[in-house]
Amino acid sequence: MAASSAHHSTSTSMVRLSLFLLVSIASSSFSPATAQSPPSSCASHTFSSNQLFASCAALPRLGTTLHYNYTAAANTVSVAFRAPSKGAGWVAWGLNPNGTGMVSTQAVVAFRHSNGSLVAYPTLLDSYAPSMAPADAAELGFPVSNVAAEYVKNGKEMVVYATVALPGKGSKFNHVWQQGSSVTNDVPAAHPTTGDNILSTGTIDFSK
Ligand SMILES: *[C@@H]1O[C@H](CO)[C@@H](O)[C@H](O)[C@H]1NC(C)=O
Ligand SMILES: *[C@@H]1O[C@H](CO)[C@@H](O)[C@H](O)[C@H]1NC(C)=O
Ligand SMILES: *[C@@H]1O[C@H](CO)[C@@H](O)[C@H](O)[C@H]1NC(C)=O
How many Cβ atoms are within 10 Å of 47's Cβ, its own excluded? Predict the structure, then answer.
């Protein structure tokens, strides 16, 4: 993402992720014949550097949207997860290859570091009290690259980007998403354990 605005010059992607230079998807599986108009609540969104995503879904909880480009031939998806930013909070999105809830999800998380940078990295949700520490390439169950984050809408929303090598065949996956309102010592603190914050899970079909 080019530094096209002041907001966005703080975008950070963890260098270690450049191990997976994978994908910048040159050709895409987007087929005009099956194109549908995405829901208006997410279709109107534009990203920095005029990045375009072929599909989007308004997620049913937390006022969030997921924008994505799915490449079946490569079994990858590039996503932009957009969520309201709550004060000095954090946002996260991930896929759970082994279940439907939080535990065993591999996520990408973004928040404002105390040094002023917006940081984003993959992390493993291996329990209901995960460390939220960055996971290095060797720890990842499936490769994640191009992780970055930015504020949009004058800081009212945060976006986290990632390219994911999908952990399984087909286009349907269990995903979870989350938003928390505080970061302590540069570690995202626990999210509320009531209401929408524990209902923010679902199944997504990236071919749709
Ligand atoms: C997504 O796919 C579209 C259509 O093929 C392409 O123009 C766009 O650059 C892709 N965006 C990203 C972020 O990969
Ligand atoms: C998912 O299950 C597989 C097979 O049992 C295991 O190897 C893998 O570590 C699990 N992944 C996570 C993130 O728990
Ligand atoms: C802030 O810390 C993060 C995480 O260690 C690092 O990636 C980033 O480069 C730092 N930013 C500045 C401005 O020092």
Answer: 17
Q: How far is the CA of 128 from the centre of ligand 1 (A)?
A: 35
pTM, rounded to two decimals: 0.81
Asked whether residue 9 falls in the same domain as residue 64, the answer is: no
CA 36–ligand 2 middle distance (angstroms): 34
Q: Assign residue 97 the CATH number of its domain.
A: 2.60.40.1210
Do 194 and 103 share a structural domain? yes
Which residues span the domain enclosing 11? 2-34
Residue type, 20: F
Residues 6+ apart with CB under 8 A from 66: 42, 56, 57, 59, 79, 80, 81, 82, 93, 175, 177, 204
What are the pLDDT digits (tens) for 8-38?
A: 333 333 333 332 222 233 333 333 333 444 4
Domain count across the chain: 2
Residue minimizing CA distance to atom 1 of ligand 2: 98
What mean pLDDT, rounded, does the chain reach?
A: 82
Q: Which residues of 22-45 are buried (b: 16+ CB within 10 A; e: fewer)?
A: bbebeeebeeeeeeeebeeebeeb
81 in the same domain as 12 = no
